[in-house]
Design a protein that fits this description.
Layout lengths: L15 E3 L2 E7 L6 E7 L14 E4 L3 E10 H12 L4 H10 L9 E9 L2 E8 L8 E4 L3 E5 L5 H13 L4 H10 L19 E7 L10 E6 L8 H16 L11 E4 L6 E6 L6 E6 L4 E6 L5 E3 L8 E6 L7
Antiparallel strand pairs: 1-5, 2-3, 2-9, 3-10, 4-5, 5-6, 6-7, 8-9, 10-11, 12-13, 13-16, 14-15, 14-17
């Protein structure tokens, strides 16, 4: 478990705006993973915010979603209370009693955390948030939303989360798909989509704070008519494909990649095989570039910023080496 004791946020004024949002926070008692996923009909273009801004992950500890009339200072307080040892319900109670704007009725939160190694969850929906509004809480998850078509949006998210097998990220992605209908977030009905941005992120217990193992996000613009949950699903499917390739299927004598890490040129060697295509994918699952029919076994990586990337090599039939 690695995280800072206190989170510092520099800002001249609070970033405060209304969201119409549906989201989920959850913890996996078997793996110790914590995760957050959500979507909203807010056009983030111009705000300078990432798609996952409303969700906070604390590896090995818990997760918090802050929404409705969003205040970054309330979000900061929520983080500090959880890091101080409060249970999810205690975090909620403190936030309601100490709202930065003295109006907790405008806020909505979902909190999950491990308390003595067992997950607990809690949520708050302010009475002054816009209808339809509400939340659902289970042993290891909290689902919340406002300005929705109705209770069925959250009910569908919960059903998908509970009935999907697999990893925590699989279950969170399925929960979002439960809300993938036009106007799930009511103000997006005119856009023909459920929302304008969507995100999914999961932290392993030993991840560094602010560096979760999985972070995916999609931001669209009002009027694009692009469904962000579908786009997020595509990113997640690509990320899953890369991260579920078993190392045992590739013999070290057959494949070698060097130098690793690389700053200028990456070389690869496939014993007796020639790749038909090469794809470089970042840790968020985004395709950085693709080369078809490479002319050599060297790849220039000068244009990539420092980070972790995945190299996907395919043969003529599209099979991954």
């Amino acid at each position: 478990m690695k995280y800072l004791a206190t989170i510092f946020l520099l800002a001249l004024t609070a970033s405060l705006f209304s969201q119409d949002t549906f989201s989920i926070v959850a913890a996996d008692p078997e793996t110790g993973e914590v995760g957050s996923a959500g979507a909203s009909c807010v056009d983030l273009n111009g705000f300078g915010l990432d798609a996952d801004f409303l969700g906070q992950l604390f590896p090995g500890l818990g997760a918090i979603n802050t929404q409705a009339w969003y205040s970054q200072f309330n979000q900061l307080n929520a983080a500090n209370r959880l890091l101080a040892g409060d249970t999810p319900q205690e975090v909620i109670d403190w936030l309601v009693s100490n709202d930065v704007g003295s109006n907790p009725g405008l806020r909505q939160y979902g909190v999950v955390a491990f308390v003595e190694e067992a997950p607990q969850a809690a949520a708050h929906t302010g009475s002054s948030t816009d209808d339809w509004k509400g939340h659902l809480v289970g042993d290891n998850y909290a689902i919340q939303g406002n300005i929705l078509l109705g209770a069925s949006v959250l009910d569908s998210m919960e059903a998908n989360f509970l009935n999907t097998s697999g990893s925590l990220s699989d279950k969170l992605m399925a929960a979002l798909q439960g809300a993938n209908l036009v106007g799930a977030d009511a103000r997006c009905a005119i856009n023909g989509t459920s929302s304008l941005f969507a995100f999914l992120k999961v932290a392993q217990p030993d991840d560094e704070q602010e560096e979760p193992s999985l972070v995916l996000g999609v931001i669209t613009a009002d009027g694009d008519g692009v469904e962000p949950i579908d786009s997020l699903q595509t990113l997640y499917d690509e990320w899953t494909l890369v991260n579920t390739i078993s190392p045992t299927t590739i013999k070290s004598s057959e494949v070698s990649v060097y130098p690793n890490p690389a700053s200028d040129v990456l070389n690869f060697h496939l014993e007796g095989k020639v790749p038909a295509s090469i794809e470089v994918i970042n840790r968020e699952g985004k395709l950085m570039f693709k080369i078809t029919r490479p002319e050599s076994n060297s790849l220039s990586v000068k244009g990539l910023t420092s980070g972790v990337y995945f190299l996907k090599l395919k043969d003529q039939k599209g099979q991954i080496f």
